[in-house]
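User: Hey, my collaborator sent me this sequence without any context and asked if I could get a structure. I don't really work with proteins. Can you help?
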Amino acid sequence: MSRIHEALKKAAQDRATQSPTAVTADLVDGAAEINRHIEPPDNLMRQEAVRVGTVVDPRFKDTGVLTFEELIKRCTHPKWTLDARNSVFVGADSDRVGAERFRTLRSRLYQIAGTQQLKKLLITSSIPAEGKTFVAANLAQSIVRQPDRRVLLIDADLRASRLHQTLGAPSGPGLSDYLRGEVDEFAIIQNGLEGNLCFIPGGQQVANPSELLLRDKMKELLDKMSTIFDWVILDSPPALPVHDASMLADQCDGVLFVVRAGSTDSEIAQRVSGEFRNKNLLGVVLNRVDSADSYNNYYYGYGGDPEGVSPRK
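Assistant: No problem. I've predicted the 3D structure and written it out in structure-token form, which is a compact way to encode the shape of the chain:
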């Protein structure tokens, strides 16, 4: 039985046996068959830390070489107020267990990045309220806590943008405004805290989000930002109601699929996640697991090896 199937089956069992009040905190669970404290070796860290001037997309020669430092000078600097209820890294009552689980997920992604290109990461779910925004925000915060790690977090859910609420950041101008040609990238990129985390909010609600995401400007933005940042993490709409996530997956290097324990219907989750198997589905993150639950592993399934938890060669 595949590990993805086990995770989805467990989520269905929890849904049948647990009441919503049984889950007391948003937690991403630990990693199966993975050493918790594995970090990428120095040579991998250097390879991952692509610096502009070493790799330059030829399509952007006319704009010159844009460095991270120059981007920070030219982007916006609003004040963010992180919501401690949705971050395991801030506040007096920060969730140490949850933070450690995200560090484990971070290490797992670096392991995969050692065997294949992995800089642009899409995070989605089958239906709303499964925790994809929570996972995207906390994963980004986990990565930038490493020295010299640079992350761009993008709210690509143009139908129901909420990532700005988690960060306590302005909602615009944002991605939709940029894709419509109303502003440039410097107007939409925010750097609201000390450190290397930047953010693009969703922007104004639009009537044609799918058409905007299909424009060449979206791919050009992702390609350009991936030469400046170590990771570009996209929070996408849920995959079942609309096809936005599937379209965005074609522009990214990998997909994480979020499942909410005790809530997600296993058949729906299996069917929807199966649509991403040909789009480099990296694995499933089981979210909102009761801290007392003994089911304490991430379950990863890979397109070519659904039984395994090792990176694909």
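In plain terms: The first helix runs from residue 3 to 17. You can pass these tokens on to your collaborator as they are.
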